[in-house]
Specification:
Length: 160
Amino acid sequence: MATLTSDLGRRELTLLEKIRGVSWGLVLLVFTAACFGIAVLYSAADGNMQPWAAAQTIRFAIALIPMIGAALLGIRLWFRVAYWAYAIALALVAAVDLRGFVGMGARRWIDLGVIQLQPSELMKLWCWDWRAISTPSPTRMSVASVSSSYPRSWFCCPRR
C-alpha cells in the first residue's frame, strides 16, 4: 500500500515554467509607471536628464532585475522566511530610536554604512508576507486572497 506524503502533487517547476508564470502584465504596468515618473523628472529639469531623470532610470534598471528574480522564487520560500524577515524588520524599526538619524525632517533612517535604510518600508513588505501566511490555509491560498490581505496588513505595521 502506498503511503501519502506532504509532497503529493508537488513538483519543482523548471526555469522556463517559472518565467512563464510571471505576471508580465504587471511588469509592464510597473515599467509604464516608472517611465511616466522618469518623464515627469525630465520635465521638471527643463528637458534635461540631469540631475534627476538619469539617476532614476539607472535605479529602476538596476531594481528591475531583483524584482523579476523575486517573482521567480517560489511562494513557499516567502512563507518560510516570513517570520524571520518580519523579526529582522521589526528590530530595524526599533534600532531607529537607538541609531537613527534625521533625514527630511524626521528621524526615520538608519545608516548601515553601505546604504541608508528606512525600516518602515521593509515593515510594509513583511507585514504583507506575515499576513499572508497567518491566514487559515496557506496551501489553498489563491492570488486573490493574498492580494486582498495586503491593505489590511498595514494595520499591523508600526507607524512613526
